[in-house]
Amino acid sequence: MKGKLSLKLVTAAGTMGSVKSVILPLLLLSFLLYIANSYPNNDLSNMGCEKCALKKHEVFSKDNPTGPVYQCMGCCFSRAYPTPLRTIQTMTIPKNITSEATCCVAKHSHETFLEIPRATVRNHTDCHCSTCYYHKI
């Protein structure tokens, strides 16, 4: 009986091998879930673009005797979507993508003369999201 292996020995070795092969994928899965859960649950569509607001313009404000110059900066709503077939048929120049957007523009502003570059700029006093100037006809 020296040449025969015990059935108990073979099944024990087979079970150990299958347990070892399951441990690595489980560890990898738990690591990936940990990484996915560690990211914040924020809307990342506007990442890198702040909300439309009045901000001090550092270049125009430098050495300006009349005071700092403020400009509207930031992002507003924008989206693109496939143009409906009915609309494409009525277009003079058909386009597959239609976009909508609003831009950060000044509600109120006044002209300020800068002595150093000898130029007149608009000093904004209030901002809001409205139709983009380049979209107006």
Automatic annotation (TrEMBL):
Assembly with partners or alone: Heterodimer of an alpha and a beta chain.
Gene3D superfamilies: Cystine-knot cytokines
The UniProt record lists the keyword Disulfide bond: yes
Name of protein: Glycoprotein hormones alpha chain
Location, primary (coarse class): secreted
Single GO MF annotation: follicle-stimulating hormone activity
Keywords: Disulfide bond, Glycoprotein, Hormone, Secreted
Stated role: Shared alpha chain of heterodimeric glycoprotein hormones. These hormones bind specific receptors on target cells that in turn activate downstream signaling pathways. Involved in gametogenesis and steroidogenesis.
Gene responsible for this protein: cga
Keyword Cell division: no
GO BP terms in the entry: positive regulation of steroid biosynthetic process; thyroid hormone generation
Pfam families the UniProt entry points to: Hormone_6
Originating species: Parambassis ranga
Localization annotation: Secreted
Sequence similarity: Belongs to the glycoprotein hormones subunit alpha family.
Entry GO terms, CC: extracellular space; follicle-stimulating hormone complex
